[in-house]
Amino acid sequence: MGAFDEDVEAVYLRAFPFSLAGKAKTWLQSHPNKSLNTWEEVEEKFIARFFPPSRFISAKSAITMFSQGSDEPLYCEDAQTITLMMLHNCMSSIVV
Fold first, then answer.
1. 30 and 24 in contact (C-beta within 8 Å)?
2. Please, what is the Cα angle at 72 between 94 and 60, to 5 degrees?
3. For residue 21, what pLDDT is reported?
4. What pLDDT sits at residue 15?
């Protein structure tokens, strides 16, 4: 790890708390000071807490099973449906 990498990591560690709100901010504040020393630790614990494998599998299943009916318009005002449509299109181009 070079000096540049250490500087980037320090910026991530300082800026990360400002990107959080609600439960995520409470989660971060529940850790004692100096208990998360590296960006890798923060990232690993954050993902484990808020994006556990079960949630990933559930989301992947929902995305995989999504299909648009032939009588449905190509647009939809429902943000969740739009997101699922976009993710479905992205996931279909990725070999899993």
1. no
2. 30
3. 92
4. 92
Going by the DSSP 8-state scheme, the letter that residue 32 receives in this structure is: P
Are residues 78 and 59 part of one domain?
yes
Q: What is the number of structural domains in the chain?
A: 2
CA separation for the pair 22, 4 (Å, rounded): 32
Residue 55: pLDDT band by 50, 70, 90 thresholds?
confident
Are both 35 and 62 inside the same structural domain? no
Least confident of 4-18, 28-42, 81-95: 81-95
Does one domain contain both 46 and 60? no
**Residue 81, domain extent:** 54-92
Cβ contacts of 10-17, under 8 Å, gap ≥ 24: 12/39, 12/42, 13/38, 13/39, 13/42, 16/42
Count Cβ atoms within 10 A of the Cβ of residue 81 and give its class: 0-12 exposed, 13-18 middle, 19 or more buried.
middle
